[in-house]
Amino acid sequence: MNYIFEIELEVRDYECDIQGIVNNSVYQNYFEHARHKFLHSVDLDFAELHNQGFDGVVTNVDIAYKNSLVSGDSFIVKIALEKQGHLRMIFNQDIIHKETGKLMARGKITTVFKSNGRPVKPDIFVDSLRTKGIDFKETV
């Protein structure tokens, strides 16, 4: 995968369930946090986009859980991006255990931009990426 961004995080005790592993729902938080940090890295602010009338909305989440994270684990969330058609931006995200290099989870998060509640082309997002020299896959 052609990763364009990564961030290192650590599992906190309260994210684990009774089995001592990270609860499945917490992985979505890890993926979302990485996406927001990615936006900041390309000078896009989620709140400011909203104030300008643009909202990035998740329309689908697909997560494959491969291995379990436990309290204290350090891991890296990596992002690869693709534009699908005229409206969809797909964030392909991997969570990699820092010490072992094992793939812990793989997520495919589909998003669209909306303005006034209606889907719009993600031009503001795409233009910002291209200005920063970030390459991504485009599919029809």
Task: Write up what this structure looks like.
This protein has a single domain (5-139), classed as Roll (Thiol Ester Dehydrase, Chain A). By secondary structure, it is an alpha+beta fold. The radius of gyration is 16 Å and the shape is elongated. The protein has helices at residues 26-41, 46-51, 123-131, and strands at 5-10, 55-65, 74-84, 88-97, 103-115, 118-120, 137-139. It contains 3 helices and 7 strands. Strands 1, 2, 3, 4, 5, 6 and 7 form a 7-stranded mixed sheet that branches.
Kindly report the average pLDDT value: 95
What distance lies between the first and last C-alpha atoms, to the nearest angstrom? 19 Å
CATH topology: Thiol Ester Dehydrase, Chain A
Which regions contain 5 or more consecutive residues with pLDDT less than 50?
A: none
CATH homolog superfamily:
Hotdog Thioesterase
Query: What is the second-level CATH architecture?
Result: Roll
Assign an overall shape.
Answer: elongated
Q: Write down the domain tally.
A: 1
Share in β-strands: 35-45%
- Note the run of SSEs as H and E: EHHEEEEEHE
By DSSP (H or I, 4+ residues per run), the number of helices equals 3
| CATH level-1 class | Alpha Beta
Radius of gyration: 16 Å
DSSP summary, beta strand count: 7
Which features characterize this protein?
3 helices; single chain; Thiol Ester Dehydrase, Chain A; 7 strands; elongated; alpha+beta; 140 residues; seven-stranded mixed sheet
List the helices and strands and how they pair.
Layout: E1 5-10, H1 26-41, H2 46-51, E2 55-65, E3 74-84, E4 88-97, E5 103-115, E6 118-120, H3 123-131, E7 137-139
Parallel strand pairs: 3-7
Antiparallel strand pairs: 1-3, 2-5, 3-4, 4-5, 5-6
